[in-house]
Amino acid sequence: MSECDSGKAPPPWSAVFARPRGALLQELVTRAQSLPPIRMGVVHPCDRPSLEGALAARDKGLIVPTLIGPCKKMEAAAREAGVSLEDVDIVEAPHSHAAADQAVELVRRGKLHAIMKGALHTDELMAAVVRDGTGLRTDRRISHVFVIDAPTYHKLLFVTDAAINIAPALDIKRDIVRNAVDLAHAIGMERPKVAILSAVETVEAKIPSTVEAAALCKMADRGQIAGAILDGPLAFDNAISRDAADAKHIASEVAGDPDILVAPDLESGNILAKQLVFLAGADTAGVVLGARVPIVLTSRADDVKSRVASSALAQLFAHRPRATT
User: What is the model's pTM?
Assistant: First the structure.
């Protein structure tokens, strides 16, 4: 009889942790503290988590926040959180849509180096960011990168895209990879290893993500994606485990040691990232790239540590060396 059949609760799941939780993200925060803070617009921070996260990032020396939203609501949130808004720059906006528009306009005027989402829907903020003519579009597709510190894995692991692009076509996946590679370079990875994920490791016409993975690898061979080592398609097991790759006779520089996992679509990427949090004890940070400035796209479930680490990512990215022509 199983424990479930006997009415006894199963033992709590546990994993062998190679290091303390969040240690690698904390190293990123410490590295970022050696750089000048960036001016970050915090859009509609009208709840306690939004304010606490922004002010904690300020106290770490990562950002100089500009709070954009209805003053009365922000002041009420500050009272609830027991924090002071004295000496904090505040821009009045009557509602969340107006706050998003104000943040974008301040970026366009060179007043802000980054944006952080507060207590508003992602769609509200991103609508202002991608609006034709007045938004923050570049020639690169916008995408999100999770930076995951799973203590059961030997280094930081990027997962992309799990928040913006629902079913990206090949040209969009190219930009998703390029954005993640740029972030890897910004935090000090010289030549990150990129695993293009699918359900299998062979190219199958009936599984379009395998064909796209192969095309992305050829793009890297031809210089359309630079500064990284790509391999794919790879199933998750042989991307992460060298033993699994060896069992299938996969010769790969990436298998068993990826820095970046590129998901076939948003659903699989989102599920993967959340599995790592809830089943592998991972801590996460994240940032949206491809716009004129990095965007910290927080979730209501994000704690202060996650918001601080995400601010550090944005700061490191903003200070990255730019290619000269």
Answer: 0.91
